[in-house]
Each structure stands twice: as structure tokens, then as C-alpha cells.
């Protein structure tokens, strides 16, 4: 299977990866937007969890990760619900980890397990994503997941170029199966992009406002029985369609936007990175480099 990623280029994917991508549980990610509800305010920000999940897998592959870690990267977001983290805001889940709590259950998907069984693999191998250190490594260090969503989001909103991404990828290295950078220059560049992503995009007035509006609409729909929590296990368009059967969602969003939401706050997860760097054979955090 040939796959072209819009930031990493074209790749030939092995059979197990191809067959996992073709499962319904993975194809569903095509209809779950990476940025949650922000596409309702800005249709140009329309990249999906599908693209991100494949991107994480490709990045792990570029870094020499074994096939099991590539699969873990591919599957790590299959439990995301409609509108990504919107359900965390609706249910006031401070850690934004609703999808993580569902992950083990979603991994039991029959079609997914049939594919893994065909390739002599067990879904239990992938239950604990934290054992795959290229994929997930605690903040403030780097991980393939963290790197991909930063590069992908920043590219999608027009803040960085493909040339910058290619340059940065050349600055990645691995030590003890975790991601480090080859110089302070790469570390400072990525830290700047990550900070810009969190403050200029995640915490932008546009992003915060549309999620405040959708939080209120969805909470009201849940309370009135228009939707149920399990409807989030579908996708963005399934949830929109179910709401639209009762009222026009776009009109409701427009009306609430017109009234203004500046006085309302949305509690989002706080993030920061302090990349690790190879300095004369030693690994130092950027904050430790003088």
C-alpha cells in the first residue's frame, strides 16, 4: 500500500499496517477532527485523527521503531470520541483523558483483533502505550505523538513550512529508545513552535469560544435526551446529524457567537516541553543548557 502523508511524503506500508488502516474502527478516525470543534469556526482547520495516527506511525518508522511500536503509534488514538476532546470539556475532565480510559475496551474490536491474529499478534501487546517510549514519553520530554501533532497542527494553520518540517526531522535522534534532538538549535525551534501552538492556537479566542459554545450546546442536548454519551462513540458528523434532527446547529452556534462568550472560560490541559538534547555524548534538557 502506497500512502502519501502531507508533511512526511510518500511511503510503502507493510501488510499489517495496511490491513489495520482498512478496519472500520480505524477508518472512523477520518471523521474525527484533530482540532475538535474548531473546524466549525474555521473549515480550513480540517485535518483528522486519521492523518495524525498514520503520521505518528510514520515518524516512529523514520526513527527506527520496531513494527510493534509502529502499530502502537497507529492505534493510539482509536478510542478518541467525536470532536476529540470536547467530551472532556462537557464532563469537566481536567486531565482530558476520556479517550485513554476507553482505549483498552476499543482495542477489543473484533475486526482489529482478527487482523492482529492473522499476523500472529495480540492486542494485549498494545494496551499499555506508555511502554512504547518513542510513541509516548512523559512531558516535558518529546514523543512521536507530541511531535506529530505539533508539526501537523502548525502546518495546517500556516505557521510552519514543509521545508522547516524536513529540517527539523533531520535533527531527531534516539537514545535508549526515546527521542532526543541533535542540537540546541532544533530544541529551541521546537519549543517555540510548541509554545505558539498552545498559546496561539489551543488557547486562541477562536478555539476557546467555539468549544465553550459546543460545550453548552452538547450539555443541553445531553440533559434533554437529544443525544446520549454513547453517541460520542460515533464520529463528528454522526453527532452533528443527531443534533440537527432537533434544531439547526449552525444557527445555534451563530446566535451564541453573536451574543459573545468573552466572559466565559474553558479549562484546558496545560502543556509545556523541555526537549532533551545530545550534548557531547550526554543528554541534557534544554533548560539545563547554558
From TrEMBL:
One of its GO terms (biological process) is dGTP catabolic process. InterPro entries: dGTPase-like (IPR050135), HD/PDEase_dom (IPR003607), HD_domain (IPR006674). Residues 49-150 form the HD domain. Pfam families: HD (PF01966). It comes from the Bacteria. GO terms for molecular function: dGTPase activity. SUPFAM superfamilies: HD-domain/PDEase-like (SSF109604). This is HD domain-containing protein. It comes from Sinomicrobium oceani.
Amino acid at each position: 500500500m502506497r500512502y502519501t502523508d502531507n508533511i512526511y511524503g510518500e511511503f510503502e506500508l507493510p501488510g499489517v499496517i495496511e490491513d489495520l488502516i482498512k478496519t472500520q474502527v480505524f477508518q472512523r478516525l477520518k471523521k474525527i477532527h484533530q482540532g475538535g470543534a474548531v473546524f466549525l469556526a474555521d473549515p480550513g482547520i480540517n485535518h483528522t485523527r486519521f492523518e495524525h495516527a498514520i503520521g505518528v506511525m510514520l515518524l516512529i518508522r523514520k526513527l527506527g521503531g520496531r513494527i510493534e511500536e509502529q502499530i502502537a503509534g497507529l492505534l493510539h488514538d482509536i478510542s478518541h470520541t467525536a470532536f476529540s476532546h470536547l467530551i472532556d470539556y462537557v464532563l469537566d475532565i481536567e486531565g482530558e483523558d476520556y479517550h485513554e480510559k476507553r482505549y483498552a475496551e476499543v482495542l477489543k474490536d473484533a475486526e482489529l483483533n482478527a487482523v492482529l491474529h492473522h499476523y500472529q499478534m495480540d492486542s494485549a501487546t498494545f494496551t499499555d502505550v506508555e511502554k512504547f517510549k518513542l510513541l509516548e514519553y512523559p512531558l516535558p520530554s518529546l514523543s512521536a505523538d507530541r511531535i506529530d501533532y505539533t508539526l501537523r497542527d502548525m502546518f495546517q494553520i500556516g505557521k510552519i513550512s514543509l521545508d522547516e518540517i524536513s529540517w527539523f526531522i533531520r535533527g531527531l535522534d534516539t537514545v535508549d529508545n526515546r527521542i532526543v534532538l541533535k542540537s540546541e538549535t532544533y530544541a529551541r525551534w521546537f519549543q517555540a513552535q510548541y509554545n505558539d501552538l498552545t498559546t496561539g492556537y489551543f488557547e486562541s479566542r477562536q478555539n476557546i469560544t467555539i468549544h465553550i459554545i459546543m460545550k453548552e450546546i452538547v450539555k443541553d442536548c445531553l440533559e434533554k435526551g437529544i443525544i446520549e454519551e454513547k453517541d460520542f462513540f460515533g464520529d463528528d458528523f454522526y453527532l452533528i446529524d443527531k443534533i440537527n434532527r432537533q434544531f439547526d446547529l449552525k444557527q445555534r452556534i451563530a446566535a451564541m457567537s453573536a451574543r459573545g462568550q468573552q466572559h466565559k472560560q474553558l479549562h484546558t490541559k496545560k502543556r509545556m516541553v523541555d526537549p532533551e538534547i545530545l550534548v557531547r555524548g550526554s543528554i541534557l534538557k534544554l533548560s539545563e543548557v547554558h
